[in-house]
Design goal:
Radius of gyration: 22 Å
Helix content: 10-25%
Number of domains: 2
Low-confidence stretches: 3-18, 280-305
CATH topology of the largest domain: Glucose Permease (Domain IIA)
Number of helices: 4
Number of strands: 22
Order of helices and strands: HEEEEEEEEEHHEEEEEEEEEEEEEH
Distance between the termini: 74 Å
Strand content: 25-35%
Largest sheet: 8 strands, antiparallel
CATH class of the largest domain: Mainly Beta
Length: 305
Amino acid sequence: MTLLARSISALCVLSGVAAAEPTVTVAPAKVHPGDPVLVTVTGTTDAPRGKAGGAELQFFPAKSGFQAVLAVPLNVNEDHILVEFTAGPKPLSIPIVVKTFPETNVTVEEEYADPPKADRVTIDADNAVIGASYAKATGAPQFAHGFHRPPGTVTSTFGEWRTFNDGHRAQHLGLDFAAREGSPVAAIDDGIVALVRDTFLAGTVVVIAHGGGISSLYFHLSKASVAEGDKIVQGSKIGLAGHTGRTTGPHVHLSIHVPGGMVDPASFIKLPIYPRVKLAAQTSGHRLPSASTSSAMNTASDRPH
């Protein structure tokens, strides 16, 4: 083959590679309301841009291509969620399977079952501040490994409908784990403390921004051990388990927020999230013993509202 022929052949191969469309995969393939979805795009060196269900996707470099996590809203009223890209990959439709969440009756102190007007103003302010904290989770991942499930027995699941004393219903937006009063609560992954606040319904709250649009929330703490702006490593103590706010007893409440809303922490922790790099080394905080030897972490037992 002449030099000219070899050059033309090489150009054809390169053109074929350049023309190939990126590959998009999602996990899981079928989802329920409140599920997290992991979108992985390979075959491109440029970070994708897109939306899903109206929420902006926050793609970050992964060990293979780029990844982003999104939420299937609990109140979704369609049979699919559409992932759309600004350029490159074609739109992808993810089927949504209807799910019936369990229901339970809960008895709490009357002030929490039917808060007076003044307390409702406080509740609205708490919700606004917690919601604003999610913006601090934008940008590159602060973590370089998978998220760690808190130890302990699950005592209440995500999405459960609760009817309180007065007949008021609220949906549980976290996962609860049994824990003794005052036992240490650990961060499920590296991140930066976005919020520490004493609230009416959720009690003492800590929110950790992990980057990539991912936030973890810890409710009903008896005490917070961190301050806003602290850099946290996975397993470091962020507070003590308690039953502040609207609860029936001490436990660990964990909530997860990603673009699109709250998601089931049990499903989120199973996602194969593999960021390529971590933004910066996390050195603050004291790492707790492993899940097999440490006390339970806190999960929020109620949506603050």
